[in-house]
C-alpha cells in the first residue's frame, strides 16, 4: 500500500498527558498537511509543511501543539497537556506540489488518528 | 469568516441522480474539491477544479461561489459522507460540514 499512513489509528489518554502522532506521506510528496475533525464537522486545517519547512499554521494550533517534519519525509504532531477538547480525529494529507500559492495539487488523506481524552 | 456550506443530508433512490449543493464565503477561493468519506477510511478525492468537470459517475458544476456534485445512477454502495472543500491562494483546504447521502433500494 503506497497511500498515506498514520500511527496509531486510535489513542486513548488521560487529561494532562502528552501524545504524539505520526504521519508517513506518499513517498515522493513534498507537501504535508495536518487537519483536525470533530464529530459531525468537516476537517479543519491545522498546519502545512513544504519539505521540512512549516509554512502555515492555523490559529487552532495552540501553544500545546507542535508539529515537525525533520527530514522532509514523515511528520509528527505532539499535543502536550491534553484537554478533553482535544478529542478529535487528526487527519494527515500529502501532495506533490510544483506550483506556488495558486497550485491545485490533490491532497491525499490518511485514515486518521482518533484521539480520546478522558 | 471563511466558511463552506453544504446540506447535512440528502436522500435518494437507487438509480437516480443525487445532487449535493455547496457554496462558500472563502475569500479569493477559486477551486472546489469534492471528497468521499466512508467511516474508518481515508477521505478520497472524487473531482476538483475551477470549471465543470466529470470523473466517471461524478459530475462537478462550477460557479464563482458555488458548486454541485452530481452522482449519476446512484447505488446503495454510494451511501457515505461527501465533503465539499474550497481552496484560496495558499495550500489549505476549507471544508464544509459534510453531506450524508442516504440511498433507498
Explain how this protein is built.
The complex is a heterodimer of chains A (118) and B (105). With 118 residues, chain A is an all-beta fold. Chain A has no helices and 11 strands. In chain A, the strands form 2 sheets. In chain A, strands 2, 4, 5, 6, 9, 10 and 11 form a 7-stranded mixed β-sheet that branches. A 4-stranded antiparallel β-sheet of chain A has the order 1-3-8-7, with no helix packed on it. Chain A is globular and about 40 Å long. The mean pLDDT of chain A is 93. Chain B has 105 residues and is mostly beta strands. In chain B, 0% of the residues lie in helices and 52% in strands. Chain B contains no helices and 11 strands. In chain B, the strands form 2 sheets. In chain B, strands 2, 4, 5, 9, 10 and 11 form a 6-stranded mixed β-sheet that branches. Chain B is globular and about 40 Å long. The model of chain B has no long low-confidence stretch (mean pLDDT 94). At the A-B interface, β4, β5 and β10 of A face β4, β5, β9 and β10 of B.
Q: How would the global form of chain A be characterised?
A: globular
The best one-word shape of chain B is globular
Q: Report the span from N to C terminus of chain A.
A: 33 Å
Biggest sheet overview of chain A: 7 strands, mixed
- Spatial gap, N to C terminus of chain B: 40 Å
- Largest two-chain interface: A-B, 30 and 27 residues
Gyration radius from CA atoms of chain B, angstroms: 13 Å
Q: Percent of residues of chain A in beta strands?
A: over 45%
pLDDT under 50 segments of chain B (min length 5)?
Answer: none
**Helix coverage percent of residues of chain B?**
under 10%
Per DSSP, the total helix count of chain A is 0
Q: Using the CA coordinates, give the radius of gyration of chain A.
A: 14 Å
Percentage of residues in strands of chain B: over 45%
Task: Tell me the total number of β-strands of chain A.
Answer: 11
Task: Spell out the helices and strands of chain B N to C.
Answer: EEEEEEEEEEE
Quick one: how many beta strands of chain B? 11
Tell me the structural class of chain B: mainly beta
Amino acid at each position: 500500500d503506497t497511500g498515506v499512513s498514520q500511527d496509531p489509528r486510535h489513542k486513548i489518554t488521560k487529561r494532562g498527558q502528552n501524545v504524539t502522532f505520526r504521519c508517513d506521506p506518499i513517498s515522493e510528496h513534498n507537501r504535508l498537511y495536518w487537519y483536525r475533525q470533530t464529530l459531525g464537522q468537516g476537517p479543519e486545517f491545522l498546519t502545512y509543511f513544504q519539505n521540512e519547512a512549516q509554512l502555515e499554521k492555523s490559529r487552532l494550533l495552540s501553544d500545546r501543539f507542535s508539529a515537525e517534519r525533520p527530514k522532509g519525509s514523515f511528520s509528527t504532531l505532539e499535543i502536550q497537556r491534553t484537554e478533553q477538547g482535544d478529542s478529535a480525529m487528526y487527519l494527515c494529507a500529502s501532495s506533490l506540489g510544483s506550483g506556488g500559492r495558486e497550485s491545485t495539487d490533490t491532497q491525499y488523506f490518511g485514515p486518521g488518528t482518533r484521539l480520546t481524552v478522558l | 469568516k471563511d466558511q463552506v456550506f453544504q446540506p447535512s443530508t440528502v436522500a435518494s433512490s437507487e438509480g437516480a441522480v443525487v445532487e449535493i449543493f455547496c457554496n462558500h464565503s472563502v475569500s479569493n477561493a477559486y477551486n472546489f474539491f469534492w471528497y468521499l468519506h466512508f467511516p474508518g477510511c481515508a477521505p478520497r478525492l472524487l473531482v476538483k477544479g475551477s470549471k465543470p468537470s466529470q470523473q466517471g459517475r461524478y459530475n462537478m458544476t462550477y460557479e464563482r461561489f458555488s458548486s454541485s456534485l452530481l452522482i449519476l445512477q446512484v447505488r446503495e454502495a454510494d451511501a457515505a459522507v461527501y465533503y465539499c472543500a474550497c481552496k484560496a491562494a495558499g495550500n489549505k483546504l476549507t471544508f464544509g460540514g459534510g453531506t450524508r447521502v442516504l440511498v433507498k433500494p
